[in-house]
Design brief:
mainly alpha; 77% helix; Serine Threonine Protein Phosphatase 5, Tetratricopeptide repeat; 21 helices
C-alpha cells in the first residue's frame, strides 16, 4: 500500500491521504485506523487521532499502545478524567506497572487531588526498578504532602529523595520550606543556607531564610537576608513586614518607620503598621502624629482598646483633656482586658496617665 511507503519516509500528510482513501474504498480495512491514528498523533491532530483510536479499540480493547497514546492526548488536552479512565484500564492489563501508577499520581496531582496522588505514587514505588524513577516519585510524594500541609511527611520524603539524588538543590529548597512551615526554623535555615551557598544569585531562599531568622528572634540576621532580597526584588513588598517588625524590636525606629510606611503604601498589615508607628511617635513625643496613627489603627480594629487608650495619653500631652476623657471612657466601655479597664478608670480620676503597651 502506497500509504505505508509514505509513512516510512515520514511523509505523514500524504500517508494520511492515502489511508483515508483506502478506508473510503473498503471500510473493512479496520487495521488502518490504528496506523492513521498514530500519524495524526505525530502531526498533533489529536482529535482525529482519538477518533481513529476509538475505532481501533472497538476491534482490540486491550491494545496497550493505543491506550497509552490516548492517555497522553487526554493529558495534553487537560481531559484528566478521561486520562484516568484509560490509565485504570491499562492497570487492569498491567497491574504491576509502576510507571502507570506513577502516571496516575501525576494526573491526580494535576487535578490537585493530592490524597489520591499519594496513594498512586506510594503504590508505584515497589514496582519501579530505575533509581531515577524512584527519586522522581519520592520528590512528588514530598510535594503532595506539602500541598496537603502534612509537613512531617513531606520532610520524610524530601529527606529520602536527598539520600540518593544528585539534584540536591530542589530537594533542599522544598525541605527547607517544609521545615519553615513545621516551625523547625533552625533546620530550615540549615537547608536554605546550603541552597544559598550553591547559587550566585539572590533569590527566594534569602527571603525564606530571613523569615526563619525573624521567627527565631534573630533580627539582625533576618534584616541582612531580607534587605538583600528586597533590594533584588523591590516590587515584592512582603519583606517590608518583617523588616519593619525586626527594626521595631531592635528599637531602630527610623528604619522601622520607613518599612511600616512602605507596608501602608502596599496595603500590608495596615492596622499593625499604624499602631507601631503611633507607638514610635508617642515615644518620640510627636503627639499629633501618634494620635493620627492610633486613630487609624483603631479604625482598622487593630488593638482597638489599646489604640484608643494611648491616643488618650497623647491628647493629655497636648492638653486636649476633653478628647482624652472621651477616649478613656470609651476604653472602659469596650475593653475586655481587666488591667486596661482599671487603668482607664484610674486615668479618669487622676493624671498623669501610665501608658499601657
Amino acid at each position: 500500500m502506497r500509504g505505508n511507503l509514505y509513512s516510512l519516509t515520514h511523509e505523514n500528510a500524504m500517508a494520511i491521504t492515502d489511508y483515508s482513501y483506502a478506508l473510503s474504498l473498503d471500510p473493512a480495512l479496520t487495521q488502518i485506523y490504528e496506523v492513521r491514528g498514530h500519524l495524526y498523533y505525530q502531526t498533533e491532530e489529536y482529535d482525529k487521532a482519538v477518533a481513529d483510536y476509538e475505532q481501533a479499540l472497538l476491534l482490540n480493547p486491550t491494545n496497550s499502545e493505543i491506550l497509552v497514546l490516548r492517555t497522553d492526548i487526554h493529558i495534553k488536552q487537560q481531559n484528566y478524567t478521561l486520562a484516568l479512565v484509560d490509565i485504570t484500564q491499562l492497570l487492569t492489563l498491567q497491574p504491576q506497572n509502576g510507571t502507570l501508577y506513577s502516571l496516575k499520581g501525576d494526573v491526580h496531582s494535576l487535578t490537585e487531588d493530592y490524597s489520591a496522588a499519594v496513594e498512586a505514587y506510594e503504590t508505584s514505588l515497589p514496582y519501579l526498578a530505575d533509581i531515577k524513577d524512584k527519586e522522581t516519585v519520592t520528590l512528588a510524594l514530598g510535594n503532595c504532602f506539602f500541598e496537603l500541609e502534612q509537613y512531617k511527611h513531606a520532610i520524610t520524603y524530601y529527606s529520602k529523595y536527598l539520600e540518593t539524588s544528585t539534584e540536591q538543590e530542589k530537594g533542599l529548597m522544598q525541605r527547607g520550606v517544609s521545615y519553615l512551615q513545621a516551625e523547625k526554623y533552625n533546620e530550615a535555615i540549615a537547608d536554605l543556607s546550603v541552597v544559598i551557598t550553591r547559587s550566585s544569585e539572590v533569590d527566594s531562599p534569602y527571603y525564606l531564610r530571613g523569615l526563619s531568622y525573624y521567627l527565631l528572634g534573630k533580627y539582625d540576621n533576618a534584616i541582612s537576608d531580607l534587605e538583600l532580597y528586597y533590594t533584588a526584588f523591590p516590587d515584592n513588598n512582603e519583606p517590608c513586614i518583617y523588616l519593619a517588625l525586626a527594626n521595631y524590636s531592635l528599637k531602630r525606629y527610623n528604619n522601622a518607620i520607613k518599612y511600616f510606611n512602605r507596608c501602608l503604601q502596599a496595603n500590608l498589615i495596615v492596622g499593625e503598621s499604624h499602631y507601631h508607628l503611633a507607638m514610635i511617635y508617642l515615644s518620640q513625643k510627636k503627639y499629633s502624629q501618634a494620635i493620627s496613627h492610633y486613630t487609624a489603627s483603631a479604625h482598622a480594629n487593630y488593638q482597638k482598646d489599646y489604640s484608643i487608650f494611648n491616643r488618650g495619653v497623647a491628647y493629655i500631652e497636648l492638653d486636649k483633656l476633653d478628647e482624652a476623657k472621651k477616649d478613656f471612657e470609651t476604653v472602659v466601655r469596650i475593653t475586655r482586658n481587666g488591667k486596661l479597664k482599671s487603668s482607664a478608670q484610674e486615668a479618669l480620676k487622676q493624671f498623669p496617665v501610665i501608658i499601657i503597651n
